[in-house]
Amino acid sequence: MATRAEVAKLAGVSASTVSYALSGDRSIKEETRKRVLKAVAQLNYRPHFAAGALAGGKSKTLALLSPSGEFGIALIALEYINGASAAARDRGYHLVIWPSQESEMSEIQTFAESGMISGVILMEIKFKDDRVDYLKKAKVPFAMIGRTENPGKDSYVDRDFIAATQLGIDYLHTLGHKKIAFLTTDRAIGVDTRFSSALLEAAKKKKMTANKLQVVNEASSGRDAFIELHKKYSDVTAVVSLNDIATLGFISGANEYGVNIPKDLSLIALDTPKNHIEMSWPPLTTVNLPAYEMGRAASNILIDQIEGKENKQNQELHAGDLVIRGTTAKVRPQAKGN
């Protein structure tokens, strides 16, 4: 079994720096911390939990496993991360961001066994999520941003999809819209399935028809969705977007084809973070995604677990608020019979 001295030698640092990097007790340069973590992984180093506790060196570091794609961490994830980091800092903890394409089990195992962290925040939760099962078996404290299909008593913070979609659909209904379309992805995670189901149910209650436009999380896909709408659903007067990046591409497509938003077509976004709203023109009407607040809540719920504090509110749902801006309007008089 590798020793702390061997890790220090491989990383080119002192043994005490290895301890600081793993415990989070002192601030060190990010480059140095990454070298230490790389050496830990290469040597399969496993600090001893009990020894650390006896020495008063119990880790006060949380790991947030963040999804990352070809171009790094998505903007939508940054608001969750910023909120989680702020709450951790307020309570004397550090938050380590671990970008991961698929959050592989080997990475989870390294965290769980190494003693580097006190607990884990998971994002991009699947209905059936092996990461959750592993952490429960390993008795590692964790909280989810999102939730599995049947979370039971597991800790999570998630969107209130029913309330959020109802806010959006009810508003469009008051504007006279009866035929709508919605942009959604088809990933194997709970947010897509729950959002789509909630929207279809809300539209049904208002006797509105809702056509699905499937997209991926890219602006070009949003543009393609507009072209599909333009060709297949010319009677649609409003669109609900459940995808942040595709929304921006959809607006670009409308501008390209000379369709005026909101005069010719209304658009409301339900899953767009605040830092994307400023990227569009006209400014987006939204049911705001409270990502920062959800990130804060996830950290606080996890820290309560770690510190053994009773928290009966270890499961939270956040809907967001309807904010009317420049992309929605009443149905044009000639379109009222739609």
UniProtKB/TrEMBL annotation:
Keywords: DNA-binding, Transcription, Transcription regulation. CDD domains: HTH_LacI (cd01392). SUPFAM superfamilies: lambda repressor-like DNA-binding domains, Periplasmic binding protein-like I. Pfam families: LacI, Peripla_BP_3. Residues 2-56 form the HTH lacI-type domain. One of its GO terms (molecular function) is transcription cis-regulatory region binding. InterPro entries: HTH_LacI, LacI/GalR-like_sensor, Lambda_DNA-bd_dom_sf, Peripla_BP_I. Coiled coil: none annotated. PANTHER family: LACI-RELATED TRANSCRIPTIONAL REPRESSOR, LACTOSE OPERON REPRESSOR. This is Unannotated protein.
